[in-house]
Amino acid sequence: MKLITLIEPTDEGELALIKSLLDGNDIRYVVQNEHFGGLYPGLSLPFNRRLVMVEEQEYDRAGLLLSELRRDQAPRQAG
Questions:
Q1: What is the pTM of this model?
Q2: Any idea what the CATH number is for the domain that residue 42 is in?
Q3: In which domain, by residue range, is 63 found?
Q4: 33 beta partners
Q5: Which of these, 17, 11, 6, lies nearest to 44 by C-alpha position?
Q6: Side-chain half-sphere exposure of 75, counting CA atoms within 13 A
Q7: Alpha carbons 28 and 19: distance in angstroms, whole number
Q8: If 0-12 CB within 10 Å is exposed, 13-18 middle and 19+ buried, where does residue 51 land?
Q9: What's the rounded Cα separation, in Å, for the pair 77 and 57?
Q10: Cα(32)–Cα(48) distance, integer angstroms
Q11: Residue 36 lies in a domain
Q12: How far apart are CA 30 and CA 28, in angstroms?
């Protein structure tokens, strides 16, 4: 099983949403350093970044789900 990085969440809320989307679509994933950030809260250091990784064969499907998430979070234009 080869894992590849899907996304680096910007905060805990985004990570929770990503995990929920992947769980809801039966996409297996690993969050590298998921619990490590609690040791140094608030610090954004290279060694405590959280990376969401998925199996290579699920990358395209997971990426499509997250592209919808990112699109939904984009500010909407008035008009």
A1: 0.76
A2: 3.30.70.790
A3: 3-73
A4: none
A5: 11
A6: 3
A7: 10
A8: middle
A9: 36
A10: 9
A11: yes
A12: 7
pLDDT-based confidence at 76, cuts 50/70/90? very low
Structure token pair of residue 4: 């590849």
Looking at this protein, which amino acid is placed at residue 63? G
Query: Would you tell me how many other CB atoms lie within 10 Å of the CB of residue 62?
Result: 23
Express each pLDDT in 19-75 by its tens digit: 999 999 999 999 998 877 555 555 556 666 889 999 999 999 999 999 877 765 554
| Structural domain count, the chain | 1
Tokens read off for 18: 């990503």
Q: Return d(Cα 30, Cα 54) in angstroms, integer.
A: 7
Decide if 53 contacts 4 (C-beta within 8 A). yes
